[in-house]
Amino acid sequence: MVLKLDDITAQIRQQIESFEAPIETADVGTVISVGDGIARVSGLANVMATELLEFPGGVVGMALNLEEDEVGAVILGDYEHIEEGDIVKSTGRISSVPVGEALIGRVVNAIGEPIDGKGPIQHETFYPVEKIAPGVIERANVDTPVQTGITAIDAMIPIGRGQRELIIGDRQTGKTAIAIDTIINQKGKDLICIYVAIGLRQGQVAQVVALLEEYGAMDHTVVVVAGASDPAPMQYIAPYAGCSIGEYFMDKGQDALIIYDDLSKHAWAYREISLLLRRPPGREAYPGDLFYLHSRLLERAARMSEDNGGGSLTALPIIETLAGDVSAYVPTNVISITDGQIFLESDLFYAGQRPAVNAGISVSRVGGDAQTKAMKKVAGQLRLELAQFRELAAFAQFGSDLDKSTREQLDRGLRLTELLKQPQYQPRSLSEQVISIYALTKGFGRGIEVDKIQEYTNNLMAFMNSNHPGVGQAIEDQKMISDDIEAALRAALTEFNQSNGYELPEK
Question: Catalytic residue among 93, 365, 383, 446, which?
Fold first, then answer.
């Protein structure tokens, strides 16, 4: 077959005419300088705040400082191969994180990538990392409890769904333990948990994940990790990423709980980034917008109205104090943002009071609204008696000559304090809490030695579960103590005390 020159020319002309080159436009800039996880880039004229930038080698960065002739960006990953003169592309995409049901039971980093070795995650969609908090009209009243399983908290410092309750105390006082117990207590319930580890050692995080797996709590938990060895930008973005994951469940009408462990290290990471970006330092070298850093995060926790899906996101931020100083910059900021605080005291911890909750300083600004009627009925008396006990104990140390009623009140206070001690990873159900508090506040624990109170309550619960299971079940179902339930409970307590030789309360 002989091809003519005219035919070849015609074919080439036809292909040239039909060729359509895809036009790609990209906002491109050049790295001016790079170091300590911060890159200064020129030429990105149309970049947006918190927009993702693409650096060489597939590394992603985020634009934070938008200056007149350059952009200050934080690099979310390894930056050692990035050099001056490298090309940077803007992606047109605001910083976002993958969300969805598939994240439950997984451990991810601050940008949603799995780090647990269990393979890729089939996420459903992306949520922006930064989001404006719901307005007042979109919210509903906080009136449904989050049962932590810790008697001292559920009875005196109740947490409601949609609340922000701060856990604050010195290091090694049991802050993370309260968070872990709360997550474990949600097993088999309708609360999705997100645990955000900020600046923790990898060993600590591995220990937390192992505990959650051991107690079957990873089935309803997402763990977001920005460890101590991760760059400061990853630690900065981690709580916002975790919050976005929680908001996905809230938007679906579900209830979610998020724990930020801890926001002190988050503030340190943000201070580091801000100083490297040459932002003006303020008090304690923190930048001027430190309050806004945490307020815009914690305000995203909310209980939505029925018209807006009826979901909720409850936040438990953790703050570490130094030598019990709650008046430092970061603690005072977060105290003023949250709806109350659980204060853990070193002296109580070392004295054997675990959890080391100081009921005098701790407060829940939602109060009884977030308690069941059953708990409200027995807990009001508990808090009052403990307050009177603390007052009497302060005076009793000055003299030993006390009248009979004062001695009895001190004895009751010591028993109630002992009741609030609780082993770790052993959350108590609502009925167990209500029955044990009722027994001691109504005088069924009279005459029992203080160090035998835990044994008494354990034996009591075993007796109730085997001989009178209907009483506990009725409390769980009705969430209140009706006259019939109270009569049955008193009869059961009387039977238990008589069969074991314990004193009965005075009539």
Answer: 365
- Ramachandran class of 461: left when φ > 0, alpha when ψ lies in -120 to 50, beta otherwise: alpha
Nearest 5°: phi and psi at 280? -65, 130
Tell me if the pTM is above 0.85. Answer: yes
Cα Rg, the chain, nearest whole Å: 29
- The number of residues in the chain equals 507
DSSP 135-199: PTTTB----SB---S-HHHHHHS--BTT-B-EEEESTTSSHHHHHHHHHHHTTTSSEEEEEEEES
**In this structure, what are the phi and psi dihedrals at residue 27, rounded to the nearest 5 degrees?**
-80, 115
With contact defined as beta carbons under 8 Å apart, do 295 and 243 qualify? no
- Omega into 280 within 30° of 0, i.e. cis? no
Residue 504: closest CA among 442, 416, 420, 453:
442
Q: Is 365 assigned a catalytic role?
A: yes
The Cα 396–Cα 400 span in angstroms is 7
| Residue ranges, the chain, pLDDT below 50 | none
Instruction: Please say whether the beta carbons of 266 and 235 come within 8 A.
Output: yes
pLDDT (tens digit per residue) in 211-242: 999 999 999 999 999 999 999 999 999 999 99
